[in-house]
């Protein structure tokens, strides 16, 4: 940041130049229609202010020509349902005579204070704002949008996304998206009821395959986000109170303000004591016209802890993270544990699967819980922890060093001690976790041998063999094949031969998909032997060490 004269501050990291508008060099050459102006030079019908009055609503937000409706929709949902959070995001709440503002956003799992100047993109001819703005001369929407663009490198970089992404960046809390499937209508209705009872923020994405004209005909906006405010039963039918944060159109179907579905005018007036933009619709219509619901699990009184870490720094055992986390729970707590990978939003489809192993140091029966790996940028586990001590091992099925943030979001304070991961303790816990009763881990008994497969949602797999025989070794052959592109083997071969001693377990292989659209096929066979000694092909690295069963 640098000063010009006594008052005009210019942000050197995000300057008022084409490179802050576009990430593509060829587009920067076509930016002559946009100029950067400070508020005092921008055309407006009102005197500029950061906030006007004490009321913040979603109707304050007006989208410009930038395709970031996903972020503005999340912003409008927050403004509608939890407006006090907007005040926490905008740290500079009054006009700055120096043209400098600070805002707070959660970027890649880390809360960051973002400093920007007040230059904003404007039409070169009309001298008004090109991108988002607020009504009544408020600056807060344009400032939040600029801080968001700065974190991502340019305004163009924030084009396209999901309301889930936006809510995470604005709140920092775990979010979950549910795809609407009419066969799961009862299950999703129950989730929505419990979420509203918990005072969570709920957003819904309107749009699908019906076409823009269909949505327009019924008073909805295609590819737009709405808030879910309330659920009700009327004469046995389930209806929902929905709000369009921008209040531009009115729903025209059943249970609308003009619908004959209401039993009487008195009943209609009872339920339509709401402002413009809010409307009731049946749950069946909701599932017809909306695609997803996003639950933002925002608790006013929860504690947050975040730790930066890495996967893959130990080349001999790249599964585990650099650190393990020793938790002391002083009072029973509801907790969300999240692995947040440091990737851009548009790389989400290419992130490696991640997971957790939690060891309860207070239990001797089934003390270990392991979660199925998921290839998502934000992997969150929700659970209840009783008073006591625990060790958490994050792990990933990645091929390279990977930065991530581990987040804890809990109803009660935690004591967390971070220690370098002990390789032997991690492997022992992984083996025991995979052989414990777990959903998502298939088990095949081959005489005294148990063969376990833990599969990720991207086709990655971990194979573990568990020889329970007291005197005989198990000779195991495993081969993995695919139709077109061969998968990648961490063992160095898709065919393995292992003679596993009695009362021993071994991680046999870790398979990553090679790009074949069809899932890989695994074939295995085993025999018991008292004659063969322990042997392995390929030779074992530390990650595939044989461990005794205790």
TrEMBL record:
GO molecular function: calcium-dependent cysteine-type endopeptidase activity; zinc ion binding
Active-site annotation: 69, 224, 244
Residue ranges with Polar residues bias: 1-10
A cellular component annotation (GO) from this entry: cytoplasm
Keyword Protease: yes
Lineage: superkingdom: Eukaryota
Listed Pfam families: Peptidase_C2
Entry-linked PANTHER family: CALPAIN, CALPAIN-15
UniProt name for this protein: Calpain catalytic domain-containing protein
Protein species of origin: Arcella intermedia
Lineage, top ranks: Eukaryota, Amoebozoa, Tubulinea, Elardia, Arcellinida
């Amino acid at each position: 940041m640098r000063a010009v004269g006594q008052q005009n501050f210019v942000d050197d990291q995000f300057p008022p130049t084409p490179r802050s508008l576009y990430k593509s060099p060829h587009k920067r050459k076509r930016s002559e229609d946009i100029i950067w102006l400070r508020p005092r030079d921008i055309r407006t019908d009102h005197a500029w202010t950061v906030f006007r009055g004490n009321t913040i609503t979603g109707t304050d937000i007006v989208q410009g020509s930038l395709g970031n409706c996903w972020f503005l929709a999340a912003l409008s949902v927050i403004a509608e349902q939890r407006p006090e959070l907007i005040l926490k995001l905008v740290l500079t709440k009054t006009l700055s005579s120096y043209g400098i503002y600070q805002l707070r956003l959660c970027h890649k799992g880390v809360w960051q204070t973002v400093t920007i100047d007040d230059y904003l993109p404007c039409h070169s001819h009309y001298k008004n704002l090109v991108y988002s703005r607020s009504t009544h001369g408020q600056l807060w929407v344009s400032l939040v949008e600029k801080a968001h663009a700065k974190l991502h490198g340019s305004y163009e970089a924030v084009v396209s996304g999901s309301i889930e992404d936006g809510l995470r960046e604005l709140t920092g809390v775990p979010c979950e998206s549910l795809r609407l499937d009419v066969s799961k209508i009862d299950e999703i209705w129950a989730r929505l009821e419990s979420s509203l009872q918990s005072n969570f923020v709920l957003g819904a994405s309107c749009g699908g395959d019906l076409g823009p004209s269909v949505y327009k005909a019924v008073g909805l906006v295609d590819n737009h986000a709405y808030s879910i405010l309330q659920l009700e039963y009327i004469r046995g039918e389930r209806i929902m109170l929905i709000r369009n944060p921008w209040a531009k159109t009115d729903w025209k179907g059943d249970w609308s303000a003009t619908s004959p579905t209401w039993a009487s005018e008195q009943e209609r007036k009872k339920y339509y004591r709401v402002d413009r933009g809010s409307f009731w619709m049946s749950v069946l219509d909701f599932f017809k016209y909306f695609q997803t619901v996003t639950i933002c699990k925002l608790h006013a009184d929860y504690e947050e802890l975040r730790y930066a870490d890495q996967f893959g720094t130990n080349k001999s055992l790249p599964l585990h993270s650099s650190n393990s986390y020793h938790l002391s729970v002083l009072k029973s707590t509801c907790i969300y544990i999240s692995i947040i990978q440091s990737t851009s939003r548009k790389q989400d489809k290419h992130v490696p699967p991640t997971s957790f192993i939690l060891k309860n140091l207070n239990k001797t029966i089934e003390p270990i819980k392991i979660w199925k790996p998921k290839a998502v940028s934000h992997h969150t586990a929700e659970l209840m922890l009783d008073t006591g001590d625990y060790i958490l091992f994050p792990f990933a099925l990645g091929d390279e060093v990977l930065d991530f943030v581990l987040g804890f979001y809990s109803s009660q304070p935690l004591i967390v001690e971070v220690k370098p991961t002990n390789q032997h303790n991690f492997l022992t816990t992984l083996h025991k976790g995979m052989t414990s009763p777990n959903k998502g881990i298939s088990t095949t008994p081959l005489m005294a041998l148990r063969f376990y497969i833990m599969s990720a949602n991207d086709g990655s797999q971990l194979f573990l063999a568990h020889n329970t025989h007291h005197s005989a070794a198990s000779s195991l052959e495993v081969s993995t094949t695919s139709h077109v592109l061969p998968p990648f083997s961490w063992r160095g071969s898709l065919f393995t031969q292992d003679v596993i001693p009695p009362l021993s377990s071994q991680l046999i292989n870790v398979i990553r998909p090679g790009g074949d659209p069809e899932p890989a096929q695994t074939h295995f066979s085993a025999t018991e032997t008292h004659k063969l000694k322990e042997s392995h092909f390929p030779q074992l690295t530390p990650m595939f060490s044989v461990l005794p069963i205790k």
